[in-house]
Write a structure and sequence with these properties.
The complex is a heterodimer of chains A (about 300) and B (about 270).
Chain A: E1 2-12, E2 18-28, E3 32-36, H1 43-50, E4 58-63, E5 66-67, H2 72-77, E6 79-82, H3 94-104, H4 109-122, H5 138-150, E7 156-160, H6 168-183, E8 187-191, H7 195-201, E9 204-209, E10 212-218, H8 219-224, E11 228-235, E12 251-254, E13 257-263, H9 268-277, E14 282-287, H10 291-309
Chain B: H1 6-9, H2 16-37, H3 39-42, H4 44-65, H5 73-103, H6 108-111, H7 117-146, H8 154-178, H9 182-198, H10 211-217, H11 221-234, H12 241-265
Helix pairs in contact in B: 2-7, 4-5, 4-7, 5-7, 5-8, 5-9, 5-11, 7-8, 7-12, 8-11, 8-12, 11-12
The chains are: A alpha/beta (about 300), B mainly alpha (about 270).
């Protein structure tokens, strides 16, 4: 079953900006799905249409088979949304915010209280349950929005840049939590600017640019399309110049750092063998840029160039 | 989790009617919590204002005005003062609460929920009713210190209070829908509501006005509301009481339909 399906979804704002140009998108039930795109690509508009915060101009969308034009209330019952911007009452307490949100979805208060305790504890907010929300840290506010979105136990959880501005430790805790939620059967759609986050968490991906879906594939397939990767090597000894290694164009960055492009038909064993022959010890190695980031940039740039040429 | 809310009900998805009822109650409980939390801003000011009106208009000026329609001046203005408090508080509660939710973006909590527009409007209007009637009760208690109030027609009192509070809660909602900033939120109360209230027969009988001014006054709906309410206490009215209730009912229904249609179309809250 499809958790989300859109066909020919279009949106033109009153100022003439065409935010979506006929988006066709399917997300399978149970998926952990990344929706990526540069700023202004249409991600937030797409999410806002699905959650009825923005009126669409044309096309159709359905959530678990409920058409948002015909069965909007049923469709909305299935969705939990964590928006990009903070949108809770800063003067209320976290406990009040999550219990009220459950009520808006028809969850009785007794049930809501039990769930509030569970989710606020899981997201490490229980100690702050009676403090005014405006006093919470940035990371806590983000986690509060996740707790709020889970109160009616949605079948589809949409997270619009949930970890923006959150430190790496909390971000990783949130990743673990989201993995658990997904493993328990909740479909998750994630938009993020941290491509490492999408690569780590998501199984399928769509890239949207200028209102069009320009790529839709499994994460693994997409990463396989990367023909060349750039690695950064840290050496133990001091280098005077980049060593000559036939087949590999090493570049010296500084006295302890080399950079090399490795294509898919080469292997790193050869490179290490050549470096060993030259008595160069490698202490560590990393990708220069995140692999998904590299593909993402290429796809978006190619499309932009094609658009300019056309 | 076979359905979004299946686990809440225990067996199968809850009916939309149940979701709507719980959603509606939640909005009302939240509004009530807000009214009580900031009681110094919501419940007290009208009591102080009413006290000042009784002291200045009732005691000092009222003695020179003399009786109106056979009633002591303080007794005559008491229902009007209660009604004035109901009007301003019903209006003020909804306009500030809904505009605050728009401004703080937490209106999105409701917009993404499965609650239909009419439930959201009904919830906010009930919040306005709660505050309007609570403040009305407070002002009535203050009035009892200064004037003798008797019940002539209880149903007229209750119906006039409920209908007037609904009409002005809806007016506050519509104002909040259109308002884009805090200035616009205050335009209607300052330039429309206050003049209409003061010219609505709270402090005087329209029979004291010249004929042309009497004719103009009858266009003012607040005159009819105040007089219908006053009729409940004193049995005296400057307007046709049945006509006043018809007017209030028509206004309430028309404004409810209009407010729901605005929210349904997303005017002022979604693009």
């Amino acid at each position: 079953m499809l958790a989300l399906s859109t066909r020919e979804l279009t949106k033109t704002y009153r100022n003439g900006v065409q935010a979506l140009r006929g988006v066709d998108l399917d997300v399978e039930q149970g998926d952990f799905f990344a929706l990526l795109g540069p700023n202004g690509a249409g991600k937030t508009t797409l999410i806002a249409i699905i959650t009825s915060l923005v009126n669409k101009t044309g096309g159709t969308a359905s959530v678990f088979g409920y058409d948002i034009d015909k069965e909007l209330e049923r469709a909305k019952s299935c969705i939990g949304i964590v928006p990009q911007e903070l949108n809770f009452n800063q003067f209320e307490t976290p406990l009040t915010i999550v219990i009220n949100q459950a009520g808006f979805y028809g969850i009785p208060r007794a049930v809501a209280r039990v769930r509030a305790e569970r989710y606020l504890k899981q997201l490490q907010l229980w100690d702050k349950r009676n403090s005014a929300a405006r006093g919470l840290s940035g990371g806590m506010k983000r986690r509060l929005m996740i707790a709020r979105a889970l109160m009616h136990e949605p079948r589809l959880l949409i997270l619009d840049e949930p970890t923006a501005g959150v430190d790496i430790e909390i971000r990783r805790t949130m990743w673990d939590f989201l993995r658990e939620i997904n493993a328990s059967g909740t479909t998750i759609i994630l938009t993020t600017h941290y491509l490492e986050e999408a690569e780590t968490l998501c199984r399928n991906i769509a890239i949207i640019n200028k209102g069009d879906i320009i790529e839709r594939d499994r994460m693994g397939n997409l990463l396989l399309r990367l023909h060349t990767e750039t690695f950064v090597l840290n050496t133990r000894g001091v280098l005077d110049a980049a060593p000559e290694t036939p087949g590999f164009a090493l570049r010296m960055i500084d006295a302890h750092t080399l950079e090399v492009d490795v294509s898919k038909d080469q292997n790193l064993n050869e490179l290490f063998a050549l470096l060993s022959q030259r008595r160069i010890e490698i202490l560590s190695m990393r990708n220069k840029v995140n692999r998904l980031e590299e593909i993402f940039m290429r796809l978006v740039e190619n499309r932009t160039a094609a658009g300019a040429a056309g | 989790m076979d359905d979004a809310t299946a686990t809440a009900a225990g067996s199968g998805p809850p009916s939309m009617a149940r979701i709507r009822w719980i959603g509606f109650s939640t909005i009302v409980i939240r509004e009530y919590g807000r009214i009580v939390r900031i009681w110094g801003q919501t419940l007290v000011p009208s009591a102080v204002t009413a006290m000042l009106y009784f002291v200045i208009f009732g005691n000092l000026i009222g003695r020179r005005v003399g009786p109106i329609a056979g009633f002591d001046y303080k007794q005559y203005i008491a229902p009007g003062l209660i009604m004035m408090a109901i009007i301003t508080n019903s209006y003020g509660n909804v306009v500030s609460s809904f505009f605050g939710a728009k401004f703080g973006k937490h209106i999105e909590e409701l917009l993404v929920s499965p609650l239909p527009a009419w439930i959201i409007v009904a919830g906010y209007v009930t919040g306005g009713l709660v505050r309007g009637l609570l403040v009305g009760l407070v002002v009535m208690v203050v009035s009892l210190v200064f004037a003798r109030l008797e019940v002539h027609h209880l149903a007229a009192i209750v119906a006039a209070a409920l209908l007037t509070s609904s009409v002005f809660s809806l007016a506050g909602f519509i104002n909040a829908i259109y308002a884009r900033n805090f200035d616009q939120m205050n335009w209607i109360p300052t330039f429309v509501l206050t003049p209409l209230t003061y010219f609505g027969g709270v402090f005087y009988s329209v029979t004291m006005l010249p004929p042309w001014a009497q004719k103009v006054s009858f266009v003012n709906p607040i005159l009819h509301m105040v007089n219908a309410f006053r009729y409940g206490f004193l049995g005296a009215s400057d307007v046709h009481v049945t006509g006043a209730f018809v007017l209030m009912s028509v206004l309430a229904v028309a404004m409810f339909v209009f407010a729901v249609s605005l929210l349904d179309r997303g005017v002022g809250v979604r693009d």
